[in-house]
């Protein structure tokens, strides 16, 4: 059996009492206390996540912009070194290769932050479609060049501000800053006002040699603000309440960004015939035949991935993600439904094991972000 990979932070969160699991070949914390407690801490105070397992792929060279414009749906020509860009890579049929965030770290140099499970697949996909020579475009996996921490919650700014003289109030949503000096640390960091929880917060990218020190400092300096380390369990319930997609559930090679309500990152008019554009154009004009929606259970029962959704005993789709919402105290889920049944207020049934339970289609997100 292949040994599980560990992030630089691993020794620290083991000391913090983490219960770890195998997540796509990484030994990562599923929880430190309880999922509900960690969820509440992030919603009301602050949560610290180690997300260093997220894949990082560097694209550089004089043709890197042209190459990435062909590979992604958003308009990368709008990106500057002070911003982050959420985007999608698609197959020719419009299905999703991955969703990702792109940073411009220097002229003709970009870092793609991708889903951990997709890192090798994405790397191969990029290489397979790279028509430029090595002098024009270079592609390199740089996951281990960074420790990536996410500090999320209403107290996140106050905590992080204790570590830097940079005015964090000036940093807006999806903006980033490079070369941030943290007190007592030898190497500068990059921070972005991004996250995966529906709360205000930051993602911090720093050299691995400073990673454990930063983790400890944030937990120490955030004690007054009620900071807690957070595992994968609460990360999932937080993103689900916020209606944020997870690759392999709301996005996949069979599910297009149009079906997943990601129209806002599909720039059909950017002047580039990117991969998947033809299918996505047709879906925009005709409307997708399926759509990701929110569902709320009326009867007792938690919808789980793969549960069928029915109307009049006919299957109209399936649940992509589901949980009992710690914030709303209700069972909620996201589902991929035939578009004709995707209207808010539509009454449906969810097959949960051997029971058929009443539910209703509701707007996304469940939790205001």
TrEMBL record:
EC number of this enzyme: 2.1.2.10
Pfam families: GCV_T, GCV_T_C
Catalytic EC class: transferase
Substrates-to-products reaction catalysed: N(6)-[(R)-S(8)-aminomethyldihydrolipoyl]-L-lysyl-[protein] + (6S)-5,6,7,8-tetrahydrofolate = N(6)-[(R)-dihydrolipoyl]-L-lysyl-[protein] + (6R)-5,10-methylene-5,6,7,8-tetrahydrofolate + NH4(+)
InterPro entries: GcvT (IPR006223), GcvT/YgfZ/DmdA (IPR028896), GcvT/YgfZ_C (IPR029043), GcvT_bac (IPR022903), GcvT_C (IPR013977), GCVT_N (IPR006222), TrmE/GcvT-like (IPR027266)
Entry keywords, A to Z: Aminotransferase, Transferase
Record domain GCVT N-terminal: where: 10-270
Coiled coil stretches, renumbered: none
Domain Aminomethyltransferase C-terminal: 290-367
Gene3D superfamilies from the UniProt entry: Aminomethyltransferase beta-barrel domains, Aminomethyltransferase fragment, Probable tRNA modification gtpase trme, domain 1
The keyword Chaperone appears for this protein: no
Keyword Transferase: yes
Similarity comment: family membership: Belongs to the GcvT family.
Protein's job: The glycine cleavage system catalyzes the degradation of glycine.
Cross-referenced NCBIfam families: gcvT, PRK00389.1
Oligomeric form and interacting partners: The glycine cleavage system is composed of four proteins: P, T, L and H.
Name recorded for this polypeptide: Aminomethyltransferase
Organism classification: Bacteria, Bacillati, Bacillota, Bacilli, Bacillales
Gene: gcvT
